[in-house]
Write a structure and sequence with these properties.
alpha/beta; four-stranded antiparallel beta sheet; 11 helices; 14 strands; 21% strand; RNA/ubiquinone_mod_enzymes
Length: 309
């Protein structure tokens, strides 16, 4: 039984070595000009440093270029991809076909991970993008465990699944927060709104608070709870899922490091000693609950929801 890759989204370059020690196998980094909902902003210099540190430790770095690109940004893509090729980034994460076309020209040998957030819901679509050049498909968060297993059984590409963290529920390219503040006569810079970690939409009827922030790619509304299935990894590991992702967006560096340590322990035990994993998995979940932010409940997302056709 192979071990799935443990993929982490770091908040800072300074955390890479600690995350390697914690057990991370690979990292997703990038800057908001090209990537969506990253745990931290990584300039070109930061990306280059991250690649250097990771490669010294035998780890991989995937760079996010999964934003939606309007015509004004498309001319920038080949230049950025050429830079990533030059520093030996291990893969590019993309959703917009413009990135695929630019990569064919600037770096035809670059590994590509297809991630459109919501549309990777079946193996046929994953394989279609595989034929177009993608080596990995990042599955949508809105599908259940049965669908994940079926996709992995039939996929001709690597399969990545998010196992921890918040999920994007809505994105608009418009500056909805900016427009709201301007309507109220309160000017507020986008940078301040991006750094503000305590902004929520409050749904009194459902008693939910949805984190909301705004950046260069528009307005993002996130799930009220965090996914956590540290105690439900065995079925996917046995199916051969290639990568488990911990999403650290809107989380502290310390939290990301501690969660990485716990998932590393869970994955190793599940592969090497499944019986022991079964004995301690509830304890691992309890340890995460202890460090979980007070306003972020844990749940299993869509993993055990019934599929409705």
């Amino acid at each position: 039984m192979k071990k799935p890759e443990l993929l982490v989204t770091p908040a800072r370059v300074e955390d890479i070595e600690q995350l390697v020690s914690a057990g991370a196998d690979a990292f997703v980094v990038g800057e908001q000009r090209f990537g969506l909902r990253l745990a931290g902003e990584f300039t070109r210099e930061d990306v280059q440093k991250t690649v250097g540190i990771a490669h010294e430790q035998g780890k991989k770095v995937y760079v996010a270029m999964n934003a939606l690109f309007h015509n004004d940004k498309v001319p920038e893509l080949e230049g950025y991809i050429s830079f990533l090729k030059e520093i030996n980034a291990d893969a590019i994460i993309f959703g917009d076909p413009a990135v695929l076309m630019a990569a064919r020209s600037a770096a035809p040998d670059m590994k590509l991970h297809w991630n459109t957030e919501t549309t990777a819901t079946n193996w046929y679509t994953c394989n279609y993008w595989g034929r177009k050049g993608a080596k990995r498909a990042v599955l949508a968060r809105e599908i259940n465990m049965d669908a994940i297993i079926e996709i992995k059984e039939n996929a001709e590409v690597e399969i990545e699944v998010q196992v921890h963290g918040m999920t994007a529920m809505f994105q608009s390219k418009r500056s909805l927060l900016g427009n709201y503040y301007e309507y109220q006569g309160k000017a507020l810079e986008v940078e301040n709104r991006k750094q503000e970690r305590n902004m929520f939409l409050h749904d009194k009827e459902r008693e939910n608070k949805y984190p909301i922030f705004e950046d260069e790619n528009g307005t993002h509304i996130m799930s009220p709870n965090d996914i956590c299935i540290i105690d439900e990894l065995q079925e996917m590991i046995e199916a051969g899922v290639d990568s488990f992702k911990i999403d650290g967006v809107l989380k502290s560096p310390e939290y990301i490091i501690e969660v990485t340590k716990l998932y590393r322990k869970a994955i190793d035990l599940c592969v090497e000693d499944p019986d022991q994993y079964d004995e301690i998995k509830e304890d691992l979940l309890a340890e995460i609950e202890e460090i979980q932010p007070a306003n972020r409940k844990l749940d299993t997302g869509f993993f055990f929801k019934e599929t409705v056709y």
